[in-house]
Amino acid sequence: MSIGEEDLAGRIVRRLDQGLADIDQHTLARLRSARETALERFEPQPAWALAWTGSGAHRTSARRFDLRHLLSVVALLGAISGMVYWQYLQQVEDPVDIDAKLLSGELPIDAYLDKGLDSWLTR
Predict the structure, then answer these.
(1) How many angstroms separate the Cα of 89 from the Cα of each of 59, 78, 81, 83, 101?
(2) Residue 24's pLDDT band (boundaries 50, 70, 90)?
């Protein structure tokens, strides 16, 4: 805690202690009993939070990592991977590679003599 926070905490404690003088013993006993009952029923839950080192720890300790953040990260990664896959599918092969595949394949000789093949190759 910083010096300002410690001073504020001390003032709060002193103010609460001053208020105890105005409460009767029966009410204090009931409050103590209710507090003990609440503490017995309390079950600590693990807190999911991002861990930061250095001076950033005191500023981000209130931020919590929950399911909404996880789902948004998963959705973002899914969208990026979908875009990369779509880009991969949209790639056009180099015309030189197409010609090499065409000429290295086992086409019948009539396919090379066809006038349509010649016009297709010039495109």
Answers:
(1) 45, 16, 12, 10, 19
(2) confident
What is the value of pTM for the model shown? 0.30
Nearest to 98 by CA among 122, 74, 68: 122
Number of domains in the chain: 1
Sequence-distant (≥ 6) Cβ neighbours of residue 31 within 8 angstroms: 23
The answer to the question of residue 49 being in a domain is: no
Of the CA atoms within 13 Å of residue 65, those in its CB half-sphere come to 10
Which amino acid belongs to residue 18? Q
- Domain assignment of residue 112, given as a range: 93-123
Helix extents (H) in the chain: 3-20, 25-41, 57-60, 67-89, 95-104, 109-113, 115-122
Residue 77: inside a domain: no
What's the confidence (pLDDT) of residue 77?
96
Phi, psi of 53 (to 5 degrees): -110, 160
27 belongs to a structural domain: no
Q: Which residues contact 1 (CB under 8 A, 6 or more apart)?
A: 9
